[in-house]
Amino acid sequence: MEFKVCPPIFPQVRLALTRTIFAVFLCCFSLCLPSKGEHQQGTTPISAETEAQRAERLLHKGDFAGAIEASENALNLKPGLRRANETLAIALRRQAAAEPGQAGSANNHTPSGEALDHYNAGRDLVARGDTQFAERELQKAVEADPNYAEARNLLGFVQGRRGDLPSALEHLRKAVELDSSLAAAHYNLGIALWYDGQQSAGIGELERAVGLNPVFTEAYTFLGMACRETADFERARRYLNRAISLNSEAPGPHVDLALILLKTGRLGAGFKQLRLALDINPDGDVPDVAVVIEAVRQAIRQNPEDALAHDTLGLLLGKSGADPRLVTEEFRRATQLRPDFAEAHNHLGLILVQTANEQEAIGEFRQAIKLRPNYADAYVNLGSTLAPTNINDGIKELERAIALRPDSIKAQYNLALAYRQKYGLEKQIEQLRKVIKLDPGFAQGHYSLGKSLLQEHKVEEAVEQLRTAVSLDPKLGEAHYQLGLALARQNRSSESAAELKKGRELIAADENARLASSLLGQAAFHLQQGESEQAMIDFRKVVRLRPDSPAGHAGLAGALVKQGDLDQAVAEFRRALELQPNSYEALYGMGQALRKQGSLGEAASALRRAIRIRPSSVEAYDELGLTLTAQGEPRGAIEAFREAIKLDPYDAVARANLDGVRKQSAVNESASLASSASPATRTSVERPLETLDVDDISQISSFEQSIAANRFAELEPQLISYLGQHPNSWRAHYIQGYVLFRLHKLGDSIRELSDSLQLNINNAEAHKILAKDLAVIGRYDSAEKELQDAVRLKPGSAEIHYDLGKVYAMQDMASLAKPEFETATRLDPQDAEAYNALGFSEDALGNESAAIEDYQKALRICEQKGMNFDPPWINLSAYYNRHDESDLAIKYAQKAIEINPKSDLAFYQLAKAYRFRGQWDQAAEALRSAIAVKPSSAPYYYVLSEIYRKLGKPKESGVAIDTFRKLEHDSELLESQIREARRLSVVGVDAPKDLVPGSSERKN
Question: pTM of the prediction?
Answer without folding.
Answer: 0.61
